[in-house]
Specification:
The protein is α+β, with helices and mostly antiparallel strands. The protein has helices at residues 49-73, 89-104, 110-114, 125-135, 155-177, 179-191, 193-203, and strands at residues 9-15, 74-85, 138-146, 209-216. GO terms for molecular function: metal ion binding; methyltransferase activity.
Length: 217
C-alpha cells in the first residue's frame, strides 16, 4: 500500500494516531521483569522508571517505522502535520481504580490488572524532537504544545468525555477482561464524573495537545 502512494503526497495529516503503540513493551508482560507495572494500567504515574523507559523505547521504534513509511509517500519538500493528545495520567488512574474496586470485591484477581497495560504513549516536545532528529528524513518546522479551546468544564461533559473514551478503549478491556468486567468497570468510571470534572477544570486550561509540523527533506 505504501508504494501505491510513492512520492505522490504533498501534505499529510495524522491526528491522535502516533500516541498508539503497535504493542505494549514485551518486558512489561513478565511478572519477574523490573518493568512489571503492579496495580496500574499505564506507564503514566508509574513509580517504576524502567517501565516508563520501556514505553519510550517502544514509541521510538514505532516512530522510526512510521517515518520510514511516510518518507516513501511524501514528495521532497512536502509537509506532514501530527497532532497528539498530551498526558491523560489522571484518567488512566481513574480507569485503573475502577478495575481495582472490582478486584477488592472479589470479581477477579489482581494479577489481571497487573499484567494489563494500555498501549499508548504521549511524547513531549523534547521526546518528539529526538525521534525526528534520529530518523533524519524530515526537518522540523514546528513542535509545540497547544491549547485548543475547550468547553468541557462541567459534570455532564465529563460524562461525555468518559463515554467517548469508552468507545476508544472498550475493545481492549473486553478482549482482556471479558465483556462483563469491562462493562462494569466503565460504568463505575462514569459514576466518578465529579472527580473527573474537577480534574478537567484544573487541567483543560493548560496546553494539552502536541502539534508537530515536519517537512520532507
Amino acid at each position: 500500500m505504501v508504494d501505491y502512494f510513492h512520492r505522490s503526497i504533498h501534505f499529510a495529516h495524522c491526528s491522535s494516531v502516533i500516541d498508539w503503540l503497535s504493542k505494549c513493551p514485551e518486558e512489561s508482560l513478565d511478572d519477574k521483569s523490573p518493568t512489571w507495572n503492579k496495580g496500574l494500567i499505564h506507564y503514566e504515574g508509574a513509580p517504576n522508571i524502567k517501565m516508563v523507559n520501556a514505553y519510550v523505547a517502544q514509541f521510538e521504534k514505532d516512530m522510526e517505522m512510521f517515518f520510514n513509511a511516510r518518507v516513501r509517500e511524501i514528495v521532497p519538500g512536502g509537509m506532514i502535520v501530527l497532532i497528539s493528545p498530551q498526558s491523560t495520567e489522571h484518567l488512566a488512574k481513574i480507569f485503573g481504580s475502577s478495575l481495582m474496586d472490582l478486584v477488592n470485591e472479589g470479581k477477579f484477581v489482581e494479577s489481571l490488572v497487573d499484567s494489563f497495560n494500555v498501549p499508548t504513549y504521549f511524547p513531549s516536545p523534547k521526546g518528539m524532537t529526538r525521534v525526528v532528529d534520529k530518523n533524519g528524513c524530515f526537518s522540523i518546522e514546528r513542535i509545540d504544545l497547544t491549547y485548543p479551546k475547550s468547553k468541557l468544564l462541567d459534570e455532564a461533559d465529563a460524562k461525555t468525555l468518559m463515554i467517548n473514551l469508552r468507545v476508544v478503549l472498550e475493545g481492549l478491556f473486553v478482549n482482556y477482561f471479558g465483556s462483563e468486567i469491562a462493562k462494569e468497570a466503565f460504568a463505575r468510571t462514569i459514576v466518578k464524573s465529579d472527580e473527573i470534572s474537577t480534574w478537567m477544570k484544573k487541567n483543560y486550561q493548560k496546553a494539552c495537545q502536541l502539534f508537530v509540523a515536519l517537512k520532507r527533506k
